[in-house]
Specification:
Largest sheet: none
Number of domains: 1
Distance between the termini: 22 Å
Helix content: over 70%
Structural class: mainly alpha
Order of helices and strands: HHHHH
Strand content: under 5%
Radius of gyration: 16 Å
Shape: flat
């Protein structure tokens, strides 16, 4: 398999590794709510990444051009669902916001890591 074809699987695997490292890094602080916020944010970020990847795979596998509308509408639906989940977590559940932001950064850290790896 080509290195480019393996990239999505590598990114998905590394997302889980980064989330585990962030969780392990939060344990010495002894703040359970911080760790829970990191876990929640990481799961949301990874879930959104998986959802986006499946949508993109579906778009690229179809030969018809009509699927662009469904992909774009799916992006807006995904954005709305994630916004509602985050609003509920922040306003109602009152999750640790700093932990949530750190957890939501899992995919960004992963993409940054991959970029640095490929440029060196």
């Amino acid at each position: 398999m080509d290195q480019i074809e393996q990239l999505p699987a590598q990114l998905a695997r590394r997302n889980w590794i980064i989330l585990a490292l962030l969780l392990l890094g939060s344990l010495p602080f002894g703040n359970f709510t911080l760790s829970l916020g990191i876990l929640t944010g990481g799961l949301i970020a990874i879930g959104g990444f998986i959802w986006m990847r499946r949508s993109l795979d579906r778009l690229l596998s179809q030969a018809t051009g009509g699927s662009r509308f469904s992909y774009i509408s799916g992006c807006f639906i995904r954005l709305a669902v994630l916004a509602v989940i985050l609003a509920i977590l922040i306003a109602i559940v009152e999750i640790h916001v700093i932990g949530l932001v750190i957890g939501l950064s899992v995919v960004i850290i992963n993409l940054f890591w991959m970029t640095v790896q490929r440029t060196l």
